[in-house]
């Protein structure tokens, strides 16, 4: 079994699409961090809409974004790569423009703005993964995907911090943040488009004998809906439990969120590279076990009360973040390994549908379970995640990419990572 190779920053940047594309990712993430956490606040304070109306408009944007994914998958399968990434950014420019143009009380323009922002946010992950899969291969691709996630989380975190510091300026500050976000999206789109990456799936299939069927991935997609709940644990589940059930200071929730972001930024690539010595499917199943164990840890920590409960929850949250990092480093990589090149876009689109659906329903599920007590919340999440991990581990790979997904680095690509 091969050992993990060194991480070389220059090689990682090249495997991720090159320096210009890395800058595009950073600028796009910074702009998203400036606005996305405060979009609800913008609708309520600047446009003076009610919170329920604002929330419904934002939900419509997410749903429409998901509905667009099959068409995006077909577009990617025709070979488009950097064009789709740039389009996902440009459509958000239109969303920001509508946001700035909307007068107070105008719910239709806000809904249209949320719709275009939602489309861009849903299209980007699949388009980005397809681009990276085109310019890199094997385990180098896995590291490049992990590097992109780390860079994006860093940009989101910096953007959110800058926006938080500007909120004291009131509605005018929110409007300025929206304008800066639009400029950032426009600049990122220009940079991404300039990379000019285009795939030739038919030629690749002919060269590799890659004429297999589209991967079904039924168990993987169903399990992914449950796995992605971990992404909302630091933002929704833990603040809900800490503040309403444990009556702890909101500072604990903020500290856990910041720690989660820092750990993802610093550990996503090293952990992904470390796990590259094992089959991707095994690593994804392991992520489910780690997440389930962390949920049981939260269940055990909560009864400790005010004195030790909050610090214990914070400590367990580190384990949860490690599970999230392992999941994020293996899930998309497994999909790209399983899918034939000519059907990569549709496979990634289906995966994004499962991810988007999980993210959309998880707040409602988490709050509903929490209303029935800690055992229902954490016990239910743990049982569902363990069941999902079992489904992932036992699903049979019948597609062309199964051997690649199950192989070690010596078969799947043991390159040095950047």
Automatic annotation (TrEMBL):
It comes from the Bacteria. The chain crosses the membrane at residues 21-43, 49-72, 84-104, 110-133, 154-177, 183-207, 219-242, 254-275, 282-302, 314-339, 351-370. Keywords: Cell membrane, Membrane, Transmembrane, Transmembrane helix, Transport. InterPro entries: MFS (IPR011701), MFS_trans_sf (IPR036259), MFS_Transporters (IPR050171). It is a multi-pass membrane protein. It is found in: Cell membrane. Pfam families: MFS_1. PANTHER family: MULTIDRUG RESISTANCE PROTEIN MDTH (PTHR23517:SF2), RESISTANCE PROTEIN MDTM, PUTATIVE-RELATED-RELATED (PTHR23517). This is MFS family permease. The lineage of its organism: Bacteria, Bacillati, Actinomycetota, Actinomycetes, Streptosporangiales.
């Amino acid at each position: 079994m091969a050992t993990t190779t060194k991480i070389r920053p220059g090689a990682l940047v090249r495997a991720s699409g090159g320096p210009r594309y890395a800058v595009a990712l950073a600028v796009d993430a910074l702009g998203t961090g400036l606005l996305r956490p405060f979009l609800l606040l913008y609708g309520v304070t600047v446009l003076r809409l009610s919170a329920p109306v604002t929330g419904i408009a934002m939900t419509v944007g997410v749903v429409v974004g998901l509905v667009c994914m099959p068409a995006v998958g077909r577009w990617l399968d025709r070979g488009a790569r950097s064009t789709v990434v740039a389009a996902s950014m440009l459509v958000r420019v239109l969303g920001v423009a509508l946001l700035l143009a909307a007068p107070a009380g105008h719910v239709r323009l806000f809904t249209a703005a949320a719709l275009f922002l939602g489309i861009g946010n849903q299209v980007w992950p699949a388009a980005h993964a397809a681009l990276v899969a085109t310019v890199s291969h094997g385990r180098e691709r896995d590291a490049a995907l992990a590097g992109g996630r780390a860079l994006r989380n860093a940009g989101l975190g910096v953007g959110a911090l800058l926006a938080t510091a500007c909120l004291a300026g009131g509605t005018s500050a929110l409007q300025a943040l929206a304008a800066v976000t639009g400029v950032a999206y426009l600049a990122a789109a220009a940079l991404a488009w300039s990379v000019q990456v285009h795939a030739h799936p038919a030629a690749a299939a002919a060269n590799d004998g890659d004429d297999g069927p589209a991967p079904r991935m039924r168990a993987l997609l169903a399990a992914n809906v449950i796995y992605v709940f971990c992404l909302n644990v630091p933002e929704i589940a833990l603040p809900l439990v800490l503040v309403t059930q444990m009556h702890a200071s909101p500072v604990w929730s903020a500290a856990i969120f910041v720690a989660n972001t820092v750990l993802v930024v610093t550990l996503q690539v090293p952990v992904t590279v470390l796990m590259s010595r094992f089959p991707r499917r095994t690593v994804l199943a392991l992520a489910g076990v780690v997440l389930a164990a962390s949920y049981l840890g939260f269940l055990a920590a909560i009864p400790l009360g005010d004195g030790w409960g909050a610090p214990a929850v914070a400590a367990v949250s580190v384990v949860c973040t490690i599970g999230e990092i392992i999941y994020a480093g293996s899930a998309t990589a497994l999909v790209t390994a399983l899918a034939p090149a000519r059907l990569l876009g549709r496979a990634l689109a289906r995966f994004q549908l499962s991810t988007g659906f999980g993210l959309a329903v998880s707040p409602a599920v988490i709050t509903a379970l929490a209303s029935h007590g800690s055992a229902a919340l954490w016990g239910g999440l743990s049982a569902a995640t363990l069941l999902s991990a079992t489904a992932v581990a036992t699903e049979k790979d019948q597609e062309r990419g199964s051997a690649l997904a199950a192989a070690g680095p010596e078969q799947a690509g043991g390159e040095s990572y950047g």
